[in-house]
Amino acid sequence: MDSKVAVEKRKNPREGANPFSALTFTWVLKTFLLGYKRDLEVDDLSRPLKEHKSSIIGAKLSTAWENELERFNKKHGSSNKSENFGYYKKRETPSLRRALIKVFGARIALYGIALAIMEILLRVLQPLALGRLLRYFSSNNMSKTEAYLYASGVILCSAVNIFVIHPYMMAIFHTGMKMRVSCCSLIYRKALKLSKTALGETTVGQAVNLLSNDVGRFDTALIFLHYLWIGPLETIIITYLMYQQVGLAAIFGVAVLLMFIPLQGWLGKKSSSLRFRTAVRTDERVRLTNEIIRGIQAIKMYTWELPFSDLIQKARKREINVIRQTSYIRGVIMSFIMFATRLALFVTILAYVLDDHLITAETVFMLTAYYNILRQNMTVFFPQGIAQIAEAHVSIRRLQEFMMNDEIQSTKSSTHKNTNCKDAQKNENESQIHTVNEDDNKSVILEGVNAKWLESDNEDTLQNININIKAGQLIAVVGQVGAGKSSLLNVILKELQINCGKMLLPNKIAYASQEPWLFAGSVRQNILFGRPMDYRKYDQVIKVCQLKRDFTLLPYGDKTIVGERGISLSGGQRARINLARAVYADAPVYLFDDPLSAVDAHVGKHMFEECIDKYLRGRIRILVTHQIQFLHNVDKIIVLKDGKIEAEGTYDQLQSMGVDFGRLLESAPTVKPDDESSSVPQSRSASRHPSISSMSSFMTNDTTGWGENTPEEVDEGRSKGSIGGDVYMSYLKAGGNYCVIFVIMLLYIATQLGASGGDWFIAYWVNLEETNRTTSSIVNTTNNNSTITSDSSNIVLARSMCVYIFTGLTVFTIIVSVIRSFAFFEMCMQASKRLHDAMFRSISRATMYFFNTNTSGRVLNRFSKDMGAIDELLPVALIDCIQIGLSLLGIIVVVAIANPWLLIPTGIIGIVFYFLRVIYVSTSRSIKRLEGITRSPVFNHFSATLQGLATIRSFDANDVLIEEFDRHQDLHSSAWYIFIASSRAFGFWLDIVCLFYILLVTISFLVMSDDSNSGEGGNVGLAITQSIGLTGMFQWGMRQSAELENQMTSVERVKEYTNLESEPPMESQPDKKPPNDWPQQAKIQFKNVYLSYAPMEQPVLKNLNLTIEPRERIGIVGRTGAGKSSLMAALFRLARIEGVIEIDGINTGEIGLHDFRSKISIIPQEPFLFSGSLRKNLDPFEEYEDEVLWAALEDVELKEMGLESHVNDGGTNLSVGQRQLVCLARAIVKRNKILVLDEATANVDSRTDEFIQKAIRRKFSDCTVLTIAHRLNTVMDSDRILVMDAGSAVEFDHPHVLLQNKDGFLTNMLKETGNTMTEILTTIAKENYENRQSGSTTAL
């Protein structure tokens, strides 16, 4: 299904890298250098490592899941897996978590042990070494050598930490990625086995959300997993060490810090339940968006943009409400980061001072260092771990639910006893299901087969079906709408499980579905479908499927890229390519589900005779059709009625039995209780598409399929260069006006002032205490008592004052930081909401050219993944950046006050960091963009697969598609792997630079100090603890700023879609607005009309000049690609138009689109229905009274359904005929003066066809009716027929008049229908003409 040829990628740079290179990340350097020079392209990506290849780890997890199912079945004494999916849903279920642990558990545990050793040993030793070092500055009891030794200890701890933590993070990220890839692979493999009923319950939006957001949790969940047990262990050890230092005061401080944990635990739990609610609401919004994108053409023609925008807005509002709560929780947790350590330190010092102890630099800064470790592990990583694991648990549960969906029966031989079979076989005791697949079997036998779609259905869909088809027979299956024709084909395909009876089938079956399924790829790839190319056979197949002429018209012949679902082809072209795929497959049995209904009579006749009858002679062919002219040529006709075989035999036998073919035949569709291939409407557009031949402007000059030219696919737009300041500003402005932004910045600054003020004040207090202590000892030696009193009273006063100031600063920091978080996240929610609304508004107003050149997966990617990032990831990255930026500023000021000389190395480090960041960001940004682009094909492939499941399974193409899905995943994995590697490498190198900074700061104090070093302890402690904090924070801040820029690409991608080329205005200018009762006459005039689908392309309609009189019924006919649907596109202004189209003298180009589109009713070929009530489908604006709606339902005989009955996504719970009737009811409700029928009756049986035609004559007798038709019998009684050819009107008159020209276009088309039909239709045209003439004479 991929339109690009797979190119062997270059070797992954990580392959073969030596241990030193792996440890120091030097293997990433080449990528950085390349990324710095130019933007990276998809071709620059390397092949995936063997350990994360989708096929390998997907198979591993798949095996583990199968084993888990087996274990579960054994435990619960069940042998049949497919039978027990219903049981799983109700009770205990097999555990996906257990399967994941089996595959990845050992490695994750190993990483945890490595992390624990590093965390507990190194992190605990560093503050001890720091404390001893500070003692050197506070007293004279230590030699300089010892001081240097302790300084080395401080530096060494940091160094080892760097060399352990980065490879650990890389490994854990890599494992998370492997879990995600394997889960995606598992979901895809499951999707290929989904039963029809399960497919009805799962929407594409839901499945895409699983693939985009849910599995994405694995990427982040593992990072903090081990802190859930390392954190508490480390807390116990550190508490003990602090207790040794300050006694009970340490217990108070730690207690305060740990008090946050239950609160965070509760917040984490709340966050998890909110995550589940968010996922459900996001599913709903993505599902709605998906429905709208797929039905956009119908929505535009029905002028329903506003009610759908309203629906989306409501869904978005519901989603944002939950995300807002999650964000507030995040805000509170982020605030803890600001004040948790400071509060704990404050409580410890307060308790220590109140217990009449004197504070020293060693005590305070050792405590500070310990609390910093605890803060990071217990108030950041631990709660993050809880929240992430909780969210991952929810995601695993959702994936597990998907994995528990019903599957279709395996294609292997199976025998099951069943006692539910009633009257299907003579002996109930012997009733059984028996399906046999044999390679050498050449016949199709069904004995006593009963089947139903849903277990809950009271009646079987098919009852007591007995069929015996021998090799080489051509069988026609006929019956009215709802007779069970498609259900019969589905039984043979094993899509519909039989609950009784016996089937004997060959192993290989080829199938052409009623609604053609095409994927985004070349025409040739659609026909070959993964099979090897045999030029001779291929040439024969395209010849018999009448595709030769089309290939000469296509710009690149059969290498032309067809859009998603074949969107750029006409209905007839899609049907023929769909048929060619089946014919090329070379199977003993062929099932054709009404493939001739979408083509005109001439092409249909050739397809039947040359392809189905001659080319496939000798094979079993089962053809569902309602075209009377073909029934003479079949070996046997099976007549179905209400799921039973009413009669079978040859045409003559059935006629002699009195079967009324007129009531059964002509142009029926099949009915499906569930849609033929998925629960999603088959086509984005709800009506015929302009053929690609007309879109490519008839490039007939030697453009056959065998040329060397290959087409360029329209690639996904991708910005280049850095994210501009305008993107940041647009995000902030979307959140609020300048005043709001200013207030939030003030809150941030106030919080930082409070926090940094507290840090500086503690050093000042320590220095004060030490100075006073020194002064006290001097005074004591001189015996000056009065000074002691005075000094000691000053100290007491100063100490109580210090306590008050410190308390004030701490309380101020807490209050302001919480207010700041709430205000900030509220602003982010507003920004999210407005960006989404702007993008949706722009999409709904975009031209049809945009939808024809962009796949729905690409658009959905913006609405799911990018909006998800803006909703949840971007605010966190932004608050981190602002918070860290201000903290850095605070630290630099505090350090500068302690020792101004340290500003010099700080400045140098800043410059080095800046240059490192420039190199990293340029690479990281283009890698992140590549990651976004390589993600889209994964969604597209998944989405296309769900829509063509029946076809895929019938061709046994599962393995080919799994292989291709794995290829798409591997490409995305290459981008993701290089992204996490570059991110880790950047962190590692920043930390190495930071290490030199700590070295410089620590040694500088020792070098610059003289022997009288007492009194500086506060300054030294402050400088070293802050520089250790500064380094970790500096590199985190740099990485977060790069991460922010990466997340900003999502804003940029969303912004790209807010500035799409828009259709003309919906509403007219006040002076141009037509009157409310316009059009009264409904006279339509085309004056010099040219239509083209894309800029710079040749026009498809050329110089069209015609006048359609009021109340005329016009038939529009022509061969495939003649421009029939382009005429409709011109009338609705769905493409670029030059010239004038007037309705009742008003130029439609000068008035608003809604003003004239709302005045034209359309009944499209592929009816567009959306999920909701029938009332909503008839009247989404709620403009009409119930009586009007009930009357319309009565007119189309759907009254028994009721207005409140539920309609599935795409109307899949209604038959094709019923869907058309709903569209007719819409037209009746609107009572417009102009009605367009676009092949509206091509897919309904003759009774429904007749009913629709009568209803139109009765209800629209005073309207202008335009009927686009393939079949001449539907338009032969028209007032005039317009014959189109190559984009021009070649004939336009009454059919009888046109038929007088023996070489005319219409005459030649009529000859193709066969002699009998020609006579009948000529008579109809003549009678109609005579009646019309006599009518006009009488009027005179």
Automatic annotation (TrEMBL):
The chain crosses the membrane at residues 99-122, 147-170, 221-243, 249-267, 328-352, 358-374, 738-766, 803-825, 873-895, 901-920, 988-1008. Residues 678-697 have a biased composition (Low complexity). Signal peptide: none annotated. Residues 444-667, 1084-1311 form the ABC transporter domain. One of its GO terms (molecular function) is ATP binding. It comes from the Eukaryota. Keywords: ATP-binding, Membrane, Nucleotide-binding, Transmembrane, Transmembrane helix, Transport. Residues 410-422, 698-707 have a biased composition (Polar residues). The keyword Membrane applies. It is found in: Membrane. Pfam families: ABC_membrane, ABC_tran. SMART domains: AAA. SUPFAM superfamilies: ABC transporter transmembrane region (SSF90123), P-loop containing nucleoside triphosphate hydrolases (SSF52540). GO terms for cellular component: membrane. This is Multidrug resistance-associated protein lethal(2)03659. It comes from Microctonus aethiopoides.
